[in-house]
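dumping this here before i forget
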Amino acid sequence: MKPCVTISLVEEARGGPFVYWHDPLTNARRAQSLGFPAIEIFPPDADALSPSKLPDIPSETGQSVAAIGSGGGWVRNRWHLTHPSAEIRQKALDFIRRLLDAAARFHAPVIIGSMQGKHGDGVSLDQALGWLGEALTLLGQHAKSLGTGVYYEPLNRYESNLMNTAQSATDFLDKLKAPGVQVLADLFHMNIEESDVAEGLRTYGNLLGHVHLVDNHRQAAGSGQMDYSEVAAALKSMGFAGHLSAEVFPIPDSHEAARRTMDTYQRWFAGSAH
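structure:
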């Protein structure tokens, strides 16, 4: 397991749960000074990842890009993959496909969280899941052709009404069998939806590709009530070798949020770094 930290480039998301904001190279170096070998980037669109706008961070700092968030398409445009409008659904699909193309320069998977959408407004749950399954299959195939992948992130009930629990997401993905698609398990969402977070992680099994390391109140891991001994034991028992990424509010500030995350990583997870 490897620690990771988030950097948002989306002005419209200012105030959201990201450790660092803008100036990605400077902030990558700040994270590196605390021991983070990887970053996760939340861009406004694919163009923001182009060489003319985003430095080659792996070459500059030696850090990897663990994942790219797609939520900018929702935050800025209100696009999602289960929208009642076929035109909007296509825009959402194209937005994520372009992100995959741009993220390939970093060999980075793309996260589908808020852009999964929800059912309602005349769209049934079955119809929404059908559209989501079609989109994940297409995007997973495209990602696989690029040598990357897609991380599907189940959200809590207040943000989506599609799949909230590990069991529902696992059942869906097991049936779908979409190539190139794994799960991103966000501990904040799991803390709301799972009776046992550690058992939820075990439910994902080999589907688990990425973890958002965060405490129960969406602040830095180790600053709230989450039991990381159980989380660490579950991940170690699974042989998880992915990234533990801090998608947290920068409280009291970015540096302290990153430092607390690293302290928690070192205490509970570092012994099984791969």
